[in-house]
């Protein structure tokens, strides 16, 4: 795989400083039942990295001691970590809001038959990957048969009450472009998704979130191999909006890798750019002093323009 990091490090991206921490985004490992072309994590079925129970307990300890209210679980497929259910139950007991970034097809893995029911019982918010509402485009990006299984997954979640009024069960969909271009306007695209999925499959969902593809890891390698890397980076930079700097997700979030080390965001984690809150090379969650995060400088590189281009992009969707 071609490494895009050397092409990203030198940057004139505006300086960013942290605000109050409200979200822990935890990568539970790189194991995934899919092998998507756009994946910025380079996750897949052959990866073996997975978070240990010891590190999960350190995260729970940090949450309890610092009154963290939101836990964002990602991967790979986070549900494939053997301690996933333990973490969810323990965090819910601390009254923590939990987000599961689910690829939908994991619901039908051999050892995950009760996963959907578990998520509903624990009122876990689901952010489900569905890059398009057509079979051809989804299978092209995520693999043959993924679209059909994704539709089955959404229907199963709807049957459990997800996206139903008054249920308290949130089901958001995540869109990312099929190539080297920016997402369409989020609100407009959401209406298209809702009409198409309701008409064709009787599927309901809460909100659509748009995410810009980052020129790192697997997607960055593809861009380099096609000779499109510089062109895509120029697009991101020329589409930059200072307005988006006020609400980028890294100001209120820290990302934790499967070994328990902290980063300013998930993308920095994949580029091995540890947070600057400590003089040490890396800071483990067990050693993190919350006071050191206050007004700390956030590490940036050229890929950060992906979060400020156009309408902005974050794990919570468009910024404006």
General description of the model:
- 32% of the residues lie in helices and 11% in strands.
- An eight-stranded mixed sheet has the order 6-5-4-3-2-1-7-8.
- Helix 2 (84-93) links the parallel strand 2 (70-74) and strand 3 (97-102).
- The protein has helices at 53-66, 84-93, 115-121, 135-142, 146-159, 186-201, 217-225, 229-238, 266-270, 290-293, 305-308, and strands spanning 23-27, 70-74, 97-102, 125-129, 171-175, 207-210, 253-256, 262-263.
- It is globular, with a radius of gyration of 19 Å.
- The chain has a single domain, classed as TIM Barrel.
- The mean pLDDT is 92.
- The protein is built from eleven helices and eight strands.
- With 320 residues, the protein is of the alpha/beta class.
Considering the chains and any ligands shown, give keywords for the structure:
single chain; 320 residues; alpha/beta; TIM Barrel; eight-stranded mixed β-sheet; 11 helices; 8 strands; globular
Give the topology, please:
Blueprint: E1 23-27, H1 53-66, E2 70-74, H2 84-93, E3 97-102, H3 115-121, E4 125-129, H4 135-142, H5 146-159, E5 171-175, H6 186-201, E6 207-210, H7 217-225, H8 229-238, E7 253-256, E8 262-263, H9 266-270, H10 290-293, H11 305-308
Parallel strand pairs: 1-2, 1-7, 2-3, 3-4, 4-5, 5-6
Antiparallel strand pairs: 7-8
Describe the structure concisely for a colleague.
The protein has about 325 residues and is an alpha/beta fold. It has helices at about 55-65, 85-95, 115-120, 135-140, 145-160, 185-200, 215-225, 230-240, 265-270, 290-295, 305-310, and strands at about 25, 70-75, 95-100, 125-130, 170-175, 205-210, 255, 260-265. It has an eight-stranded mixed sheet.
């Amino acid at each position: 795989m071609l490494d895009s990091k050397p092409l990203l490090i030198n940057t004139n991206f505006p300086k960013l400083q942290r605000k109050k921490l409200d979200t822990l985004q935890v990568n539970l490992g790189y194991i995934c039942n899919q092998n998507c072309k756009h994946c910025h994590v380079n996750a897949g079925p052959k990866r073996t990295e997975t978070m240990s129970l010891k590190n999960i307990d350190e995260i729970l300890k940090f949450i309890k001691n610092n009154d963290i209210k939101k836990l964002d679980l990602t991967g790979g497929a986070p549900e494939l970590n053997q301690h996933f259910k333990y973490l969810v139950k323990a965090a819910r007991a601390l009254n923590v809001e939990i987000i599961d970034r689910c690829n939908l097809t994991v619901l039908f893995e051999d050892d995950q038959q009760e996963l959907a029911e578990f998520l509903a019982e624990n009122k876990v918010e689901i952010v489900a990957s569905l890059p398009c509402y057509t079979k051809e485009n989804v299978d092209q990006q995520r693999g043959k048969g993924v679209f059909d299984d994704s539709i089955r997954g959404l229907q199963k979640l709807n049957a459990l009450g997800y996206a139903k009024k008054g249920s308290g069960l949130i089901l958001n969909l995540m869109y990312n472009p099929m190539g080297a271009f920016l997402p369409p306007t989020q609100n407009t695209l959401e209406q298209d998704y809702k009409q198409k999925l309701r008409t064709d499959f009787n599927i309901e969902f809460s909100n659509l979130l748009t995410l810009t593809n980052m020129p790192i890891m697997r997607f960055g390698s593809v861009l380099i191999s096609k000779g499109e890397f510089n062109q895509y980076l120029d697009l991101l930079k020329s589409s930059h909006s200072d307005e988006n700097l006020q609400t980028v997700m890294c100001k209120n979030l820290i990302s934790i890798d499967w070994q328990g080390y902290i980063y300013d965001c998930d993308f920095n984690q994949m580029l091995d750019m540890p947070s600057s809150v400590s003089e040490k090379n890396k800071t483990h969650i067990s050693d993190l002093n919350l006071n050191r995060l206050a007004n700390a400088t956030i590490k940036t590189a050229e890929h950060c323009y992906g979060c400020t281009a156009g309408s902005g992009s974050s794990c919570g969707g468009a910024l404006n």
